[in-house]
Design brief:
- By secondary structure, this protein is of the alpha/beta class.
- The chain has a single domain, classed as Spore Coat Polysaccharide Biosynthesis Protein SpsA, Chain A, CATH 3.90.550.10.
- 35% of the residues lie in helices and 20% in strands.
- The chain contains ten helices and 13 strands.
- The strands form four sheets. It has a seven-stranded mixed sheet with strand order 5-2-1-6-9-8-10, with helices on both faces. A two-stranded antiparallel sheet has the order 3-4. A two-stranded antiparallel sheet has the order 7-11.
- Strand 3 and strand 4 form a beta hairpin.
- Helix 7 packs across helix 8.
- The longest helix is centred in the C-terminal third of the chain and has 27 residues.
- The termini are far apart.
């Protein structure tokens, strides 16, 4: 299975937890690609995912799924060449748009599963990955909220707006249609609420809509395969926005009232401690040497 993640150094905890969930819910070899960047913009420095962290994930994959790989790709040059100028001041960081440069990279295979780092596998996802998408640019699940608000004027009654946190990508088709290139151009010229997601939905000509269970965005169900910890809204006792990420374990327990992932959380915390201990030992060994 080919898996794609995107982001900067701040996503390392999410990357570890998400990858751990994949290992726990699959038996296939995993070939993981991480797109990252080094960028200073408006006083903010987006640091790339560290080589030390990638090396640890490589060891973890080799230990738990022999033959699996992880590849870090710095896309800073591609980003600087085609900056999403109109959307750099929005609430979405530049890292959200890194997947739109995947068509420029020869390393990226023709079929790959993109996951946000706040997506956790809960069940075996091989059926979703192995489905045929030869005729489509991507396969995904309708956005829980967006499907109601973003509809095409010529077909208002049809739900068509897909959440971009879980996308099975047909890169061969995307390169053929120019979907990612056109989406990058749209992000350069037009400000949008959710830049990359909105562009993909607006410009995609061939998208396959899949069952909710492959990207559960609001709560868990008995058949949930992927749980996506997105921002949700609550009405009672008063209207409010709720954003809880899976690595904020106390908040998952206290705010979301769920213990569905406690076994994963325990394993994640042990692996994170192992990584920090290894990093500290490597540092002191280097200092002594």
């Amino acid at each position: 299975m080919n898996i794609l993640y995107c982001g900067d150094k701040k996503m390392e905890r999410g990357l570890l937890m998400s990858i751990t969930s994949l290992l726990d819910n699959s038996t296939d070899i995993l070939n993981i690609y991480v797109l990252t960047l080094d960028l200073t913009m408006a006083g903010k420095h987006y640091k790339p995912v560290s080589d030390t962290f990638i090396a640890y994930l490589e060891e973890l994959l080799e230990r738990e799924r022999c033959g699996s790989t992880i590849t870090k790709i710095d896309v800073s040059s591609f980003f600087n060449r085609e900056k999403p100028e109109a959307n750099l001041g929005t609430r979405f960081t530049p890292c959200c748009m890194l997947r739109l440069y995947a068509d420029e990279l020869s390393e990226i295979p023709d079929k790959i599963l993109y996951l946000d780092t706040d997506v956790l596998a809960k069940k075996d996802f091989s059926e979703f990955y192995n489905q045929s998408i030869e005729a489509y640019e991507f396969a995904g699940v309708l956005d829980y909220y967006g499907k109601h608000f973003f509809r095409k004027k010529n077909n208002f009654l049809r739900y068509d707006y897909v959440n971009s946190g879980v996308l099975l990508l047909n890169m061969a088709k995307i390169r053929e249609t120019g979907l990612f290139k056109a989406s990058r151009q749209r992000c350069i010229s037009k400000q949008m609420l959710m830049p990359d997601q909105s562009s993909l939905n607006k410009l995609a000509r061939y998208k396959k809509k899949c069952e909710r269970k492959y990207n559960d965005q609001r709560r868990d169900h008995a058949d949930t395969v992927f749980r996506h910890f997105t921002t949700t809204f609550r009405v009672f006792p008063k209207f409010k926005q709720v954003t809880v990420k899976p690595w904020d374990i106390d908040k998952v327990h206290e705010i979301l009232k769920t213990h569905e992932y406690d076994n994963l959380f325990d394993r994640y915390e042990k692996l994170l401690a192992e990584y920090h201990n290894k990093k500290a030992n490597d540092y002191f060994s280097l200092k002594k040497g």
